[in-house]
Structure to design on (1180 residues):
């Protein structure tokens, strides 16, 4: 598509391009201009062009947030909200345009990327969106209560945000899998605008939550007589005129985490849509998932539910007792660490068992192109950095600390296990996502049989054999294995000494019982799934010993440590949320 | 390789695997264990495994740095230096092992990735390494002067660092292009260890430089009577016993930037080596570069030299006058902005001209796999974020500021142009790197001619046709063009309406004169090359109006703004350095 437009626009620069009559030429130039405006740019450049646009949008927003952090400045929250509102309106206009245009072309069957999302992700997203809507309602209620002293922007914003949420969920339900093939450059801008609008909403949510937490933390410290910090004044300067104000304020505190997760999830999904623009799908791998079998699922769910129940217990104990006297506080924190150590040891064992099963049953990796999976992997790896950083800081703090509360060494063990657990879990999830599925492999094996002539260009373009050529490119060793089976021509370009592998592998596969293995893996996935939900619940609902134990704060200083936590905590929450999503995917695959 | 080891290790888990005698079995098990330790892991997992290890190393280092920032803590600089020294020694051991092993296998011709680096990059790197060595000598001299009150670690560190620098440059000269094919998992750990050791050295350099700058800035502010901040005590508590101490201290100030650049460059090169492990090279594209033609190079170099000369003038004026009275200071800053605006306008025009030339002469993009180029692109894009962030903060500050110095609006224009310039330059560089070279295209055109039977699997594995299959995979549209030329079979799998493109494109290429076009592009590349050097020199040698103009500091607050600058300034410097490297590459390609 890209070169097509480019060739047209080139003609524009040449007077002697065609010899036609004047009016014909005019209409032709008009058509060409239209083409060059919409499809002219080569794909790589269009990506960079729109990517740079989106990045700059985010940077403007972040710099506005930084100014607001400095209380003396003339930029207020209203300015930031106006900026975000503008971005939201632009996104709404684009989505409307997109949906209308698609509606008009409904006769054309649009290409869909089935990997882009699953119905359970959509369901979860809808739930998060509903909670976001409730948050908007609370925000509006809050404004109504304090309307005499708040700017009107503060009520426009939640209304626009609610509209945006509804429209966006509709868009995600019906269009997120679309592979866009027309107006590519323009659509790229539209999608990336949506991605970065959501990212900015995420940043803004994170900032609000960090402020909330900091204030909460300061109030608590002041109440305990630890410090006497000047607090940021967040309360409006007038009285609430309705009775439900405190409900709204407290409700908002618990709804924030969901709103944050909602926006980061949406931006990830839209990013996949952006990467899919102009892509040609590999039809072989674009098939429906098989139904998931659930027999033999006993140990995993039971252990998982036990973990979840004990988590809720610990959460309740923690929240009630951490604000009490110093002694009770110390033992509460110690309880948290003991609980954490048990959880993490179990999770590590589960992950290691999974990895050992994979080692005992080697299977080629699935190397077909799948932007959604690649992004999942990168996000998993990237978001664990936040948690690792907190843990390493704790390790350093414990080693260097001069005071020695009872939980000093349990904190050390907890932090080290926390690092190890993410290390192992990432390996397990990524290997699970990249291994070829058994059914997929069977099909490949059938395909590998036929005589050499089917590997001509014509047949290599028809669906069933597409996958093989692709594999030969992305992971040449794999390709060689398949091809030598057919050719037996020996040392062909870089794949020596591989003659015996395919038969042996097949033989081995027959020996193991896949259902038993897959049952264990399913149990592991379910258990880890529940554990990750547990470890998400704790910090999301206020059980954050890193704020309360005082060790890190003493070593790093209050400012540095709260900055680290405010930056890394939301990433840690995202990590747990994202691994829950990935583990569900793993559960369906194994 | 991966599956090979995996199959062996699977046998270990089965008692009935083979029926052989006891001693035979033992030696067999030993061999298998050896294999499974070195080559067992599938590629994707080995990457994640080693990547996670490296990331954690860096995080430990960064958390140590954070503690040092807090003066009261019991962790001192010596602890950080001991940690870094340990990492360096491990890297030295690995490099020694690698070089010795390679030496023993010298009969085997190792595969090399010619894209990995060029001799001029090696040359530049050697120069940076020499300056780093001088820095080490200065550090040793500094220690000798103050030896009565400094820890011995402070002299061990520069000695080890100097050894590391020499050994590493040797390694880069002779082994950086190697494509490692044996002991893959182990080598991955070795290379990633080297990557993150250098990244940590980079971080440590950035931190030292930020401290230097902050102290310098505070001294200046205090001297001008602006503020009276408590300064971090960086001076040792005894007198220098040799006369050259001040020379060492001042010399270190100017040598730091080079040391920082050296480490980031090395880690980028080693990262490419890491990505290349276990890769199978596409032999067609793995060929030597053509000699670069230099006729017609007049306007670019002349304008570039003029830019460089005026830069040095501005730098001298700035450094001399910025510490004088408030009036002179203000006009000095204004001069800087005027100069910057002229430079940036010229650079934008050059970039736009280059892009227009590309639009007028459409050519398919080169989509072959090339980790080095992909990384270049990502680094260019990623590192411009730092500079964009500073610029957007300036824009916000100028708009929100209550004071109005003479340079207020020139600062605004300068910041906006600075954003635009990077936007355009990135597009220009990336398009230049991804366009197919004229000679490359000619070859492809010749290859596209022959009859269908050459596209069988056998021939698709032999070098000359390898590239085509690959393109068909990575950018299916391109592949379709080539294939339809042969087949004319119409609507094959996702590439409709493309029949006329190839002939038209060839015809168009004949019409343009490539030498003229390439001359203009070469001039643009040279000009931008010189301009980027200029814009690197200014901040590297102390011309940083963002610290001096006071506008941003007023709006964001001192702490926030210096944090932003300390984070973003080194990235900005890296951006300039990296675009210089990329533009040299562009110069050779066009």
């Amino acid at each position: 598509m890209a070169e097509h437009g480019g060739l047209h626009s080139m003609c524009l620069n040449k007077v002697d391009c065609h010899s036609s009559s004047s009016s014909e030429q005019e209409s032709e130039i008009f058509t060409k201009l239209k083409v060059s405006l919409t499809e002219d740019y080569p794909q790589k450049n269009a990506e960079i062009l729109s990517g740079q646009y989106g990045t700059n949008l985010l940077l403007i927003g972040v710099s506005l947030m930084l100014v607001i952090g400095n209380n003396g400045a003339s930029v207020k929250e209203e300015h930031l909200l106006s900026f975000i509102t503008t971005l939201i309106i632009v996104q709404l206009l684009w989505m409307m345009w997109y949906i209308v245009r698609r509606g008009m072309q409904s006769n054309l069957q649009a290409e869909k990327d089935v990997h882009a999302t699953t119905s359970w992700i959509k369901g979860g997203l809808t739930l998060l969106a509903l909670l976001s809507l409730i948050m908007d309602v609370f925000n509006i209620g809050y404004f109504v209560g304090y309307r005499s002293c708040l700017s009107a922007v503060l009520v426009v914003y939640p209304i626009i945000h609610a509209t945006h949420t509804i429209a966006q969920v509709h868009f995600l339900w019906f269009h997120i899998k679309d592979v866009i093939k027309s107006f590519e450059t323009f659509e790229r801008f539209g999608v990336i605008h949506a991605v970065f609008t959501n990212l900015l909403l995420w940043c803004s949510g994170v900032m609000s939550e960090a402020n909330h937490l900091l204030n909460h933390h300061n109030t608590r410290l002041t109440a305990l007589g630890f410090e006497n910090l000047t607090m940021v004044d967040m309360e409006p300067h007038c009285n609430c005129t309705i009775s439900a104000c405190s409900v709204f304020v407290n409700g908002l505190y618990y709804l924030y985490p969901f709103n944050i997760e909602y926006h980061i999830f949406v931006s990830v999904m839209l990013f996949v849509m952006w990467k899919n623009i102009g892509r040609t799908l590999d039809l072989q791998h674009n098939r429906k998932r098989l139904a998931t079998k659930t027999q033999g699922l006993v140990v995993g769910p039971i252990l998982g539910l036990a973990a979840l129940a004990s988590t809720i217990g610990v959460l309740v104990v923690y929240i009630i007792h951490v604000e009490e006297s110093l002694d009770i506080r110390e033992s509460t924190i110690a309880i948290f660490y003991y609980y954490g150590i048990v959880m993490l040891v179990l999770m590590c064992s589960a992950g290691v068992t999974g990895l050992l099963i994979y080692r005992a049953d080697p299977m080629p990796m699935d190397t077909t192109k799948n932007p959604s999976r690649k992004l999942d992997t990168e996000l998993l790896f990237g978001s664990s950095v936040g948690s690792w950083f907190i843990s390493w800081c704790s390790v350093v703090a414990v080693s260097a600390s001069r005071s020695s509360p009872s939980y000093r060494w349990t904190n050390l063990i907890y932090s080290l296990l926390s690092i190890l657990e993410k290390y192992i879990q990432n390996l397990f999830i990524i290997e699970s996502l990249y291994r070829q599925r058994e059914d997929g492999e069977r099909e490949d094996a059938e395909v590998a049989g036929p005589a050499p002539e089917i590997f001509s260009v014509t047949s290599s373009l028809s669906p069933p054999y597409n996958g093989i050529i692709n594999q030969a490119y992305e992971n040449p060793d794999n390709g060689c294995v398949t091809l030598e089976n057919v050719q037996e021509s020996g040392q062909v370009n870089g794949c020596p000494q591989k003659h015996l592998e395919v038969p042996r592998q097949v033989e081995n596969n027959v020996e193991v019982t896949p259902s038993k293995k897959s049952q264990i893996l399913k149990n592991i996935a379910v258990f880890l799934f529940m554990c990750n939900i547990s470890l998400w619940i704790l910090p999301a609902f206020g059980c954050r010993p890193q704020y309360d134990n005082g060790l890190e704060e003493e070593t790093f200083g209050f400012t540095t440590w709260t900055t680290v936590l405010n930056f890394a905590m939301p990433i840690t929450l995202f990590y747990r949320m994202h691994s829950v999503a990935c583990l569900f995917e793993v559960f369906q695959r194994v």
Remarks:
- Residues 361 and 508 of chain B are 8 Å apart (CA to CA).
